[in-house]
Amino acid sequence: MAAIQLLRHATLLLDLDDTTFLVDPMLSEPGEIPPIPNSPNDRENPLVDLPDVELSYDAVLVTHRHRDHFDDAAADQLPSDVPILCQPEEVDDFREDGFTDVRPVEGTVSFEGIEVTRTPARHGHGDLAEQMGPSSGYVLDGARTIYLAGDTVWYDAVPETIDAHAPDAVVVNAGAAQFVEGEPITMTPEDVGEVRGAVADDVPVIADHMEAINHCLATREDLAAAVDGVAIPEDGERIEL
Questions:
Q1: Where is the signal peptide (predicted)?
Q2: Can you state the percent helix, strand and coil of the chain, rounding each to 5?
Q3: How large is the average pLDDT for residues 47-56?
């Protein structure tokens, strides 16, 4: 069994075999997070409600600790003993939040029989990518192989990861997140088109990370108009793989 349910932005419930991962939990109520600074607008985040979905999961998987991927509400609401799989650079931060079962993913770790491999990500272009700090993707390998690209733009490591792992589905963080200056720091519709062209026609490409945070400027409508063959779920929608 494999399925992905989009809650909001990059927050997912990912079912693989008999295990459910809560990915990048942003659990704040609308307007509880200040606008991302230096953005083209000053709307308070999140822009939309969480859907009415039961949060039942076995572990939490965090690509990086920016506020739109792990917020104060998640730190407050998640059980302190939940297993958290994360970047090695952020282990101490989770432990300082009071979590007692923090598992760094340096290369590959196993959780309930599922192999979780950390993959490269580049959160922007040039110097801005360095300023954004470390960000990761993950490949989860069970009965199906799922590639979560994370907050990254299209660059050589993305097709290399696809070639190395031959995923059965790819999840891309779209939305063309951008500041007033500089290039986008997450995938644009054009980037998503590159991912679509890098996998076989029967491999689903699922796009999230849109319409929930003030600096994500590309909408679902923009993406659908630009790229064919990409699944663009609504908040709360579940996609069976």
A1: none
A2: 20, 25, 55
A3: 97
List pLDDT tens digits, range 138-173: 999 999 999 999 999 999 999 999 999 999 999 999
Q: Give the whole-angstrom CA distance, residue 83 versus residue 105.
A: 12
Please give the structure tokens belonging to residue 178: 């951008």
Over the stretch 80-110, which tens digit does the pLDDT of each residue have?
A: 999 999 999 999 999 999 999 999 999 999 9
* CATH of residue 146: 3.60.15.10
pTM: 0.98
Taking Cα atoms as reference points, which of 107, 93, 18, 49 lies closest to residue 236?
49
Number of domains comprising the chain: 1
108-111/102-104 β-pairing: unpaired
Q: Which domain holds residue 204?
A: 2-240
User: Residue 94 burial by CB count (10 A; 0-12/13-18/19+): exposed, middle or buried?
Assistant: buried
Output the CA angle 41-186-135, nearest 5 degrees.
115
Q: Which of 207, 191, 206, 184 is nearest to 36 (CA)?
A: 184
Which among 183, 181, 236, 185 is positioned nearest to 213, based on CA atoms?
185
Q: Which residues contact 116 (CB under 8 A, 6 or more apart)?
A: 61, 85, 105, 108, 109, 110, 138, 139, 140, 141
Tokens matching residue 19: 């295990």
Name the β-bridge partners of 135: none
